[in-house]
Amino acid sequence: MSIAQITIDGKSITVPAGIPILEAARKLHVDIPTLCFLNLEHLKVNNQLATCRICVVEVEGRRNLAPACATPVVDKMVIRTNTIRVLNARKTVMELLLSDHPKDCLVCQKSGECELQDLCNKFGLRESPYDGGAMSTYRKDFSESIIRDMDKCVMCRRCETMCNHVQTCNVLSGVNRGFTAVVAPAFEMNLADSTCTNCGQCTAVCPVGALVEKDHTWSVIEALADPDKVVVVQTAPAVRAALGEDLGLPAGTLVTGRMVSALRELGFDHVFDTDFAADLTIMEEGSELLDRLTRFLAGDQDVKLPIMTSCCPAWVKFFEHQFPDLLDVPSTAKSPQQMFGAIAKTYFAEKLGIPREKMVVVSIMPCLAKKYEAARPEFSVDGNRDVDIVLSTRELGRLIKRSNIDFCSLPDSDFDRPMGESTGAAVIFGTTGGVLEAAVRTAYELATNKELPKLEFRELRGMEGVRVATIQVGDLALKVGIAHELGNARKLLEMVREQKEQFHAIEIMSCPGGCIGGGGQPYHHGDETVLEKRTAAIYREDANKPLRKSHENPYVLELYEKFLGKPLGEKSHKLLHTHYFKRENM
Amino acid sequence: METAKQYRIVTRNCGFIDPENIEAYIGIRGYEALADAVTNKTPVDIVNEIKKSGLRGRGGGGFPTGLKWEIAAKNEADQKYVVCNADEGDPGAFMDRAVLEGDPHSVVEAMAICGYAIGATIGTVYIRAEYPLAIKRLQKAINDARDLGVLGKGIFGSGFDFDIELKYGAGAFVCGEETALIHSMEGERGEPTSKPPFPAQAGYWGKPTAINNVETFANIAPILLKGGDWFAGIGTEKSKGTKVFALAGKVKNVGLIEVPMGTTLEEIIFEIGGGILGGKKFKAVQTGGPSGGALTFKDLDTPIDYDNLIAKGSMMGSGGMIVMDEDDCMVAVAKFFLDFTMDETCGKCTPCRIGSKRLYEILERITSGQGTKADLKRLTSLSATIKDTALCGLGQTMPNPILSTMRVFEEEYAAHIDHRTCPAGVCSALLQYLIVPEKCVGCTACARVCPVNCISGKVKEVHTIDQNTCIKCGACFEKCKFDAIIKK
Questions:
Q1: Which residue numbers of A are catalytic?
Q2: pLDDT value, residue B4
Q3: Quick check: A514 and A239 in contact, CB under 8 A?
Q4: Domain A288-332+423-526+539-576: which topology?
Q5: Which of A64, A198, B72, B441 could cross-link B118 (Cys pair, CB 3.0–4.6 Å)?
């Protein structure tokens, strides 16, 4: 690779030729402001469209200013990032953006997390001379999970990059010309009517308040205040590895114990763990895998392989739209959230001696698609939903702050029993590769009746978008595939459809890095290391658990013994399994 | 019209041969340049000949064509493309349409030559769907060329394969910008992307692509037949050959003209154009369409070429030339062009999307008598920032009509702001229609035509206009046979 010796603000540096000026400047600790730019390198999430023009710099010999994010360096380039010409241009561009942006920061959901607000502060802008002109306004739109308020859109197009290039859902793209250009679904249809999977990655990257989650915190406050309701809460594995970020703790801090204390302080009657249901999922899905494998090896031609995980609701909606011909391939097991809801409102409600209507099940999820999943009609009985309210990690952070709880000083406490007990296998559901690793830990022992020689399957871990591995389970070389981000899932699924490779099991998670990078997690603001730290925290939690295999969870075994019977049995089938629907790909 | 001042290279065959008959084209040495190229010359020979000719891109930018081909030729790739930009969009301009309708084979031949020079086997013409006749004739030309074997496999018995397909543009002005055009061809939203990489490095489907305008291509065969030196002998030091202009506006002879580079505006407007209509006074001429600027009587003796026009704050553009007379308000003209670009910006980058709207709002204030001195300052500074920060050529040149008119017609802007008047009598909000009592004969014609009944007066008595009700439509002014109504 050729190198370039360049000068930025009088400081010289030698860098590989062709890297963007922005990257070179960061090596010199010159912090050029950006707005539309986003680059999560390892996850191949890249938005370098140079639309906002905030990062413009002066390049000697060039007629106009150059966007630092998209201009490659060449040898002997002389760059200035803070001349009056540059500062004036940036200020004017900011003033233009502000002149077409609602000034409702006081009541904006994104306030405090808004990158435009940060830039405003950085530039010391107090007013825009272009205020008072026309504003581009659009119809508000919301689905079960997401609110679109395009009046606030700054056309950075990050959502479009996420939706089209990373997730390949192609729901959001630029429409219209000129002043009314905006990002919208085709024909400006409702998000809820589109092929949107509700993954929420658009909200995870939106720099402003144009795309945000539908906030359900008030519904929780009302339920908690209702003396006639028993309010049960479950928390997904990835939440404990990220919640602290919104409450003043560094990324990667595990806050399991403090989170449980906070939920108790909030007034939940029973603080349970989705991990319990994750162990249950492994029992069902693992048994389904073994069942399909046994029949396949016995020569049954009708058996569908590979089995695909079905715990990610965005992924489920994705294949219902995009691969309706493969609906019989994924596992019929419900997601842990829905298994939890179904068991809570039957087994646990019976145990408490209350009707299901008296119970409110709240889940805390790193995910926005879970809001949609809980609202799917098949997950309710006579209009009473198995999971009543879903909060994202961000919303829980807000709820804790609003309730005057000093999170950092809370003591650790344990989940309630029975549905708070879980194993390390369930915890790793929160990261890419985790569900398969958990399944293998159980399937191995169930299939061979031998104890696993080693618990950790490093070959299944990592951030590569598509990973393929072979794991020896007794006599069988189990071929597995793992993908995170839906674009990678599509690649894997096309391999399956074209029968290019014979997989036995496939794990899909929609979000970058799995649930730790979910659409409902605290904002990473483009810092990829945040996701890596969350993953490390998840594996740490697994390593510290006394039990690390789902089939060793005593309360899950008790549930089978006292209530469900056996995995894939009649009652399990009724409560823990579901079916999929063909949806239009438009 | 043919006058001594005109010199036809690009339009050499338009109107002289049957554009739908390939033999007619062959009869005037058509496809001879291609045959000679693929059988007797190397690709490097072709590139060198074009470089020697000094031909520069006729789409507006003026990038040296030979150099562009050389870059595309040197970039190794398994597939390369030739693209013809026929997305002509400047208001009032139709040079490309004339060539495609009158001499489609000249473009087909040149594209094949370009393919040979850079190592491409596929050519694509991106053409406006609003040009049905051009599409029909071009498609016929391609089919006929294919039938005769001058397109297809092993052209003229050489090992060179080349074929051409058409892609239709949906009429977005920004798609004339080469990167936006490429995205549109790929089925993406027609929006520009940052350069580098240039299309010659990574263009259509990410492959090296030579993208040239119709008029540029129409020059290729004559250059190869007569030699680069011949072409370089026409024009000025840095701008060679001829340029086709679409002469429009307040000039007696409107239409397409082709003149050698270096011809003066005076020659074009007063000799070829025959002067200003109705004996009015020449005021300005806009070159470069909405991306260019206004030139005045001071510039009439300027030899037109790429560099002189840029030095004068305008640009060559694709060849629109709109002549204005004393009745044109230059603030309104700037507003007109901005209205066009504001409508046509893709909305991708901030300065162009929002800046164009804000510029327009300021001009609207000025033309409606609400402008302030601060507005003038803001116009200048915002224009400068947009030029400096916009992503593509459309945005970077959008303020040109404003900046050039502000510079040359400063007093006209001042009149709108300081005196709330429009000297040319165009900006209706600043106008008053008045009846001159001495001239009014009381015929009642004006009162009868007034749509809001604001003119009163008895028959054979002097009439008056109620200024509060008048909507300044000008109907009375048009109707009065006695010049008794004036506007000021």
A1: 285, 288, 311, 331, 370, 373, 378, 515
A2: 63
A3: no
A4: Fe-only Hydrogenase (Larger Subunit); Chain L, domain 3 (3.40.950)
A5: B72
Q: Is the separation of the CB atoms in A567 and A81 below 8 Å?
A: no
Q: Cβ contact (<8 Å) for A177 and B351? A: no
- Give residue-wise pLDDT tens across range B118-146: 999 999 999 999 999 999 999 999 999 99
Q: What is the pLDDT of residues B298-319, one digit of tens each?
A: 999 999 999 999 898 888 888 9
Instruction: Give the 3-state secondary structure of residue A448.
Output: helix
**How close is the nearest chain B Cα to the Cα of A31, in Å?**
19
- Measured CA to CA, the distance from residue B400 to residue B313 in angstroms comes to 7
Cβ atoms of residues A583 and A324 within 8 Å: yes
Tell me the domain boundaries of chain A: 3-82, 107-214, 217-276+337-409, 288-332+423-526+539-576
Q: What is the pLDDT of residue A12?
A: 96
CA dihedral A416, A418, A424, A428 (to 10 degrees): -80
B375 reaches A (C-beta below 8 A)? no
pLDDT over 80 at A586, yes or no: no
The closest CB to that of A178, out of B345, B385, B390, belongs to: B345
Nearest alpha carbon to residue B174 among B357, B397, B456? B397
pLDDT in tens, A253-277: 999 999 999 999 999 999 999 999 9
C-alpha span between A40 and B363 (Å, rounded)? 43
What domains, with CATH codes, occur in chain B? 22-232 (3.40.50.11540), 242-325 (3.10.20.600), 341-418 (1.20.1440.230), 432-487 (3.30.70.20)
- Is residue B44 within 8 angstroms of chain A, CB to CB? no
- ipTM given for this complex: 0.93
H-type helices in A299-392, by residue range? 313-322, 336-343, 349-352, 369-375
* A224 or B317, higher pLDDT: A224
Assess whether pLDDT exceeds 50 at residue B182: yes
CATH T-level assignment (fold) for domain A217-276+337-409: Rossmann fold (3.40.50)
H-run or E-run covering B59: none
* pLDDT category of residue B1 using cuts at 50, 70 and 90: very low
Task: Report the first-to-last Cα separation within chain B, whole angstroms.
Answer: 39
Of B194, B342, B378, the CB nearest to A179: B342
Strands (E) across A430-561 are located at 466-473, 476-484, 505-509
Domain A107-214, CATH class in plain words: alpha beta
CB of B171 within 8 Å of any CB in chain A?
no
Which residues does A contribute to its contact with B (CB < 8 Å)?
A: 49-54, 56, 64-65, 67, 70-72, 85, 88-89, 92-93, 96-97, 99-100, 129-130, 133-134, 154-155, 157, 173-174, 176-182
Contact residues, chain B, for A88 at CB < 8 Å: 381, 385
- CATH 2.40.30.10 at A3-82, yes or no: no
DSSP A410: P
What is the identity of the amino acid at A308?
M
To the question of pTM greater than 0.90 for the whole model, the response is yes
